[in-house]
Give the backbone structure.
Amino acid sequence: MSTSANGDRYSDFYKRSVEQPELFWAEQARLIDWFSPPTRICNWDNPPYAHWFEGGKTNLCHNALDRHLPDRSDQAALIAVSTETSSEVTYTFGQLHQEVQRMAAALQSLGVVKGDRVLIYMPMIAEAAFAMLACARIGAIHCVVFGGFASGSLASRIEDAQPKVIVSADAGSRGGKAISYKPLLDEAIAQSAHKPSAVLLADRKLAAMTLVGGRDHLWSQLRASHMNAQVPCQVMNSTDISYTIYTSGTTGKPKGVQRDTGGYCVALAASMKVSPMAPSGGAWLRSTRSPACSVRRPRCACSKNRIQRCLKSTT
């Protein structure tokens, strides 16, 4: 589709959303799976606060993965590309579904339940996507923190989010040089008044790390113990929080912004209809530096189009 044609398509799309918002968003809501359909499209009784799709029950991970399995189990769902480690791994929907369930089971074994916060401080690797989708699956609220932050910035977000578990890694890589995450994380936890009960670590063998007894756990070991995990999707209210993300803090204390579940899922599915599409109906989404991008994009699979996501490890 040409740029001009796509622009016209978006203009028509936007015009309908403004002129007939209730009808428009009721139609968009049918793009996703609901365990129970919404009874009210938008509650605007207390502006500027809006509650979308009240009464509806759904799950982001179900819409990203489970509903695609009958027809797309063997299609590529996530492509993790690292120019730093010269690796490329493709996960089909079926394989990604398995990895997410293993991560979900690992988080549950560390005590994570619906409504708990999980902070993700990772390089741009596939395990970051596993963690985000796993949180959505079990109803935990995830918070992605930019992997380039120093201990002080990380500490302020830990203290505010109060995560039960932090998911991280030994190191990232930039320009061929390993950048250790674990020492930064340890210092951040030491600075924060809030202490997570557990830390889950992906060991990429890029940097040595010292584990804290009773707190730190290796993803490889927990994954091995949950290879056949079957973790059902938690039924979530449309208005439940799906994730939080913090502002940069350049103008003051970082502010946490939260997203709901149903409105977020519908908006993503709807936006895919007017996004430039790759050949064969695929949407190619590429993240380069900021994990703030990845917090949004795994759920783009809510679209009925084929979704492929490229992760480029540069941190």
Summary: Residues 59 and 236 are 6 Å apart (CA to CA). The radius of gyration is 19 Å. The longest helix spans residues 3-19. Residues 286-315 have pLDDT under 50 and may be disordered.
